[in-house]
Amino acid sequence: MKKPKQSKYAFLIVLSGIIFTGVPGAMIYSCAGIFFSPVSEYFHVSKAAVAGYFSALNITMMVALPIAGKLMSKFDLRIVLTCCALLSGMGCLSISFMSAVWQFYIAGVVMGIGLPALLYLAVPAMINAWFKVKVGFLTGLCMAFTGIGGVIFNQLGTVLIRTGHDGWRRGYLVFGLIILVVTLPFTIFIVRSDPSEKGLAPYGSERTEADNEPELQTKGVMASRAMRTSAFIALAGFCGIITMNQTVYQFLPSYAHSFQNSAPQIATLTGLIASCCMAGQAIGKVFLGAANDRSIIGGMGMGIGCGILGVALMALMPTIAPVLLLGSFAFGFAYAFPSVQTPLLVRAVFGSKDYTNIYSRVQMVGVLASAFAALFWGTIVDMPHGYAIMFALSAVCMIITFVLGAWALKQRPKLKALME
User: Fold this and answer.
1) Per-residue model confidence (pLDDT) at position 99
2) What percent of the chain has pLDDT over 90?
3) Domain range list for the chain
4) Are 114 and 87 in contact (CB under 8 A)?
5) pLDDT > 80? residue 205
6) Residues 6 or more apart whose Cβ sits within 8 Å of residue 314
7) Among 15, 272, 288, 349, which residue's Cβ finds the most Cβ atoms within 10 Å?
8) Nearest 5°: CA angle at 350, between 420 and 72?
9) Stretch (H or E) spanning 389
10) pTM over 0.85
11) How many angstroms separate the CA atoms of 110 and 93, rounded?
12) Position with higher pLDDT, 419 vs 379
């Protein structure tokens, strides 16, 4: 029987992943903050009232994740992702016509239904199906565009907001239109659930025929069984704790600002410290993905090691500007860690058979953690010596996640008996 041929069509799948994370993912998730102040001023309400719609979005995403995972595993990926793109784009666009803040919450729910498949599930699912080599690198490359897209579209959004008192309406309108115009051609015409739909073999499959663990390529533990294992609990804890740690980034600008009396030159770096961390996370996602292709433990060590180095530099030498910025850049690798390491760990532990369903349930814990993480860290930094405590707890979080991830990996021999 003739084997299906390989094709460079697989790289159009990579481009699709880049579009999903870099356009709807970045516009809705990475650019939300630029709208809070202008919207609150327009409607004369608190920023917290406006930001509440983003919490509604996160909570909806948590609920929608396992449903999206099940739909993606049962139905044509083109149909599922097209519906998700329509919900994301129309939800964003609709905000430009809203006349009260409570209506934003409805849009948040709509976008929360559409976004999780595009932001969290599509990239690892497509890369796992279409590639048997460089899976980590390509996953990291696609995920890096949440940060790259954030840098680009935050600037575009800011320009649109400044066009007038209601410039935020133009911002949401343009963002929604871009999401629809750019994303839908890929979901409709490019995306395929599996290479066999095009009569192709996964890219690099010929080089993995002698793989010493071939079951990871085609076999795996079903979600119903995986959720009853201690490895699943460890990975859920891993995802939740490392996502909590990721939110430390939100407090780095205020940390720099806290030196306005003792070291005013540091207080001026609030924007730069955030940019350095974003640069670190964009570069970190690519490097972490490549490291994972060689060794999952090595990738974990790189991410956690850089993260601990980062918080140590920022905590111990904060008044030396280059060191502070270097620490922020290094912490960016820890910021990149959840979106790269979690899907790769799930695949390494449970295989590919029911990957999307398992990963969506693990990611639920991360989304839930992100909904409460800002409140937790905000409470910590308001305490005496709060920033020092925050950095210490951040280091503890990273150590715990390394232990949980390593322990879950050690359970693989026991899980082989459950693979189908």
Assistant:
1) 92
2) 38
3) 10-194, 215-415
4) yes
5) no
6) 252, 255, 324, 327, 328, 331, 391
7) 288
8) 80
9) helix 386-410
10) no
11) 11
12) 379
Helix 102-116 with 355-381: angle, nearest 10 deg: 140
* Rounded CA separation 47/41 (Å): 8
Residue 325 Rama label (left phi>0; alpha psi -120 to 50; beta): alpha
Q: What would the two tokens of residue 302 be?
A: 């790189």
Which residue type, as a one-letter code, is found at position 29?
A: Y
Between the CA of residue 81 and those of 96, 119, 176, 187, 330, what are the distances in Å? 24, 11, 16, 6, 34
Q: Cα dist. 419→69, 213, 355, 359 in Å?
A: 19, 12, 12, 16
Query: Do the domains 215-415 and 10-194 match in fold?
Result: yes
Structure-token pair, residue 251: 């407090």
Tokens 């396992």 -> residue: 66
Pick the CATH number of 10-194 from 3.40.50.1580, 3.40.50.170, 3.40.720.10, 1.20.1250.20: 1.20.1250.20
Which CATH code of 2.60.40.10, 1.20.1250.20, 1.10.486.10, 1.10.10.60 fits the domain covering 215-415? 1.20.1250.20
Q: Please write down the long-range contacts of 263-269, taking CB distance under 8 Å and 24 or more positions apart.
A: 263/318, 263/319, 265/321, 266/318, 266/319, 266/321, 266/324, 269/321, 269/324, 269/325
Task: Write the DSSP assignment of 143-209 as a string of letters.
Answer: HTHHHHHHHHHHHHHHHHHTTSTTHHHHHHHHHHHHHHHHHHHIIIII--S-GGGGTBPPBTGGGGT
